[in-house]
Design brief:
With 423 residues, this protein is of the alpha/beta class. The chain has helices spanning 3-10, 105-115, 120-127, 131-149, 193-210, 220-229, 239-263, 267-273, 278-282, 290-302, 304-321, 331-349, 354-365, 367-375, 381-397, 403-414; strands at 15-23, 27-34, 40-41, 48-49, 53-66, 69-82, 88-91, 158-167, 171-178, 183-189, 213-216, 234-237. The protein is elongated. The two termini are 38 Å apart.
Length: 423
Amino acid sequence: MDKHTLNALINLPGYTVEEILGKTETEIHVLMRPLKTLSMTCSFCGESKDHGIHSNTIVIAEDKNICDRRLFLHIRKRKYRCPKDNNKIHVESTPWLKMFSRFTDRFIKQVSRLTAITTNQEAGWYLGLDDETVYRMDKKYLKEQAEKKLIPIPSAINISVDETSYRKYHRYLTNVIDTDKKLLIWNEKGRKAEVLDKYYQGIGKKNCEKIESVAMDGARTYISSTSKYAVNALIVLDRFHIAQKLNNAVDAVRKQELRQARKQDQQEIIKLTTSKQRFILMKNKNNLTKKQSNTLEILCKLNQPIYKAMLLKESFIQIYSMQSNINSTNSNDLEEIKNYLLNWIEQAKNSNLEPFIAIAESFLSKIQYILNWFKRKISSAISEGFNNKIKRLKRMAYGYRDIEYFKLKIHQHCGLLNPRIAT
């Protein structure tokens, strides 16, 4: 490969190939020199100079591969006595290579893009780098991108707030998602009201007042913080989390009845209430197969508490099937829904099923947030989708010890730092 071809392939502004120093099956070493027309930029003061060169030095940096060979650039750099620093000697700065870096900016970007689709270990193996080097490069690049795209904190009109676990023993991150753009825009360690306060304080009072709706799972800490700052927002306990809570209550009843059946050696009920059958209880009745419907029907005949739990679940979800006939601006329609909910809560309290008694008390205290869904049909289901992505991210890396790096990786996979998104 001649110098002209190599120079066209490398194509670094202000520099040209002076000499090919060495070539093997896996590596190419090239000597690069600055063009004569290129002014020298002092790395201390940032001023450009055409004279006052003290001496030259060679800096080695790795660049993007060429023809499946690792490319190492031996870069001639000029030294300059800077009058603004008492005539101390400084090496010239290069726009595509940061001071003291052993890798060009475009190579670091390539590494970060690669870690967005695979693990650091696999990316390192592919590029011939160790895991620690890939981690440092990726974190540094993501921090630079975060300073450009996440500062100041992005605001949104409609948001979803949820928590996700990042470590065992109840270690959580609070995530804020722009539901219009379907992007994660902010996250922070913890799930207390003070944590979400940081987001609202970060976007400022004016942006807080512009927020129209906030979807959440009904956590008191998030409700408290949102009520304090997003004063014009509708706080919505959306149907996704309602269905999730109802399914959890049904599953709790199933577990209680399974324990009872095992004590009394009721084999038929045991067979129908094992963990393998729990998905039948959680699925929407309309989505059950014929076999699953028959199984559910037999179970409900054999076990009264489970039958009662299924009736309560279905009767609550039924209200969402009426949504097409509901006018959110009509106070009579909303009053009718409220009466329906109050009636359901009364039935749940009198059901003698502890999980449904607990959920009824919770719904009673948050009935206004349930009703708000009919005014603004925003969903936080996207938060759960991102939670699944975050879980997959943790599994790929076998966990993250550096929480700050983990937060950046979440933005890389779910937010504004995703390389697939042009922002």
